[in-house]
Amino acid sequence: MKILIVSDTHRKNENLKKVLDREPPFDMMIHLGDAEGSEVIYRKWLPVQTRLIVLKGNNDFFTELESEKEVRIGRSLCLLTHGHYYNVSLDTELLRKEAKARGFDVAMFGHTHRPFQETIDGVTLLNPGSLSYPRQEGRRPTYMIMDVDNKGRAEYTLHELED
Description:
By secondary structure, the chain is α/β, with parallel strands linked by helices. The protein has a single domain (2-160), classed as Metallo-dependent phosphatases (Purple Acid Phosphatase, chain A, domain 2, 4-Layer Sandwich), CATH 3.60.21. It is built from three helices and ten strands. The chain has helices at 14-22, 39-45, 93-101, and strands at 2-6, 28-31, 51-54, 68-73, 76-81, 106-108, 115-120, 123-128, 142-148, 154-160. Strands 3-2-1-9-10 form a five-stranded mixed beta sheet, with helices on one face. A five-stranded mixed beta sheet has the order 4-5-6-8-7, with helices on one face.
């Protein structure tokens, strides 16, 4: 199973469209918030069989999207959130503690516009960065791919969008 993980596109979707054109097929696409209304077009860009999950971010004001979602992907029980309610811009510890306490294996978040991956105390924290407004050194647009093998084990790779 191949899952595309993105966040913080902020209605600037050209780079997301490039990724969708270059990396198919996907079994699932996860957008971790701040699509700013663009979520309505994503379904049109994906094959009907591709599962789409889009979460509400701090800039998604007029939407009925969920702020948080629990999903099982392979062996992993995943917490999906934008991250602003967990103050991830300051530190990921609150999110890690919450995920651990609730029995999650993985917590995926956005909000910081900086890619991040770390496993501590059995919880993997992932942030794909931003395809539109990256803030890490070098400011390259980034996304993640989650590959799940036939035994349900997941591997994560961070990708920079090349021109």
